[in-house]
Amino acid sequence: MNFTRRQILAGLAGVSVLGLGAGGARYWLGRPDEAKTHDYELIAAPLDVELVPGHRTFVWAYGGQAPGLELRARQGDWLRVRFVNHLPEPSTIHWHGIRLPLEMDGVPYVSQLPVLPGEYFDYRFRVPDAGSFWYHPHIASGEQLGRGLVGPLIVEEREPTGFRHERTLTLKSWHVDAQGAFSAFSVPREAARGGTPGRLTTVNGEAVPTLELPAGQIVRLRILNLDNTLTYRLGLPDAEARIYALDGHPVAPRPLGEEYWLGPGMRLELGLRVPAAGAELSLRNGPLRLATLKSVTSGEVSGDWPAALPANSLAEPDLAQAETLRFNIEWAGALSESVTQGGGFKFWQINGQAWDIGDRSCAERPIATLRQGRSYVFELRNVSQYQHPIHLHGMAFKVLDSNRRTIVPYFTDTYLLGRNETARVALVADNPGVWMFHCHVVDHMETGLMAAIKVA
Ligand SMILES: [Cu+2]
Fold it and tell me: pTM of the predicted model, to two decimals?
């Protein structure tokens, strides 16, 4: 395809004064009659932060923050982001979960050319679905996401939902040592297993923070797993919490239950009834505390549980007419020949094919070609001992059933496929393009677990 010409920064007034390391973002407001466009200038740049008390860590930040600046837009509106690359290497931005045209999808050599240091690229697309989404590079992912290039993208509903309060909680573990220096983002023996975990877990970039919430109110918690590797087993012991949306799409509200497994790239939206002032709740990952939620006095009258969030407008797959495609996800094991020749490891494959992140032509050989407008069922079969959050770009899919758990069918963009699990998901192939289909454990994706699916 022909790529939009990349833009070079020279002469772009106002940007250079921010300087390297400052980051920065501007929300271009002040056009009240043009409220349908949400405009940002988003600079990616190095930044030093204090992740480990008393030590400096040189992260890569979006808008002067790591995790990055929270971008917001309203359902059905346009989002425009001028991405300015002040990093020492090429990058792109992928908008996880947003159904958009291929040219805006941020996949290098498929959607666009990489944005080189000192260049910018204008992303511009409509946001068709309300919900919690996120953004990150789709190039050198282990290192770029690992250094902090991950950020929330919140799409608000067009009408008030009944939630008067909300908080975004980004989960990320950092590959740093006790002095705050980065350690390896990927270790081969870990990549061949569950992926290389970071050592320092944070919520909104802070280790075990205390977050204050208004007593008596029902607060919408948007919990986003922006981690390279970890599946969080989320729990809120003794809390009254209900699930309102999964991965950006509303569900009929139901109790959170004991634990919800949130894989890399996945999002969980909860309604939480904040207890009486002074009380504390613990947001946990299994037995570990991630954050303390502290109730503080609120002058407002107590809130009540909002109704279910309005459904996004997604095409319902026609299961009677759908063609079934099978995808086997396997461990490939052996060190590939290319490693000895300086190439990458290939530990994982889909239907016997491992993606090579060093080969720009992989996307020219899609693993499946779907006819635009037709319905398909994907049978996802995991024949490995590790779980894989399977993500598809460009389209949402509906999870139908699983041989390992009871599924209440729901729409998502990422499904956490457990070890030895077979699940069926369905979609209408309604967005033309070549779409990445991959595991969101970055180590798995970078060692083979990625494919292209063409819709034409
Ligand atoms: Cu995986």
Answer: 0.92
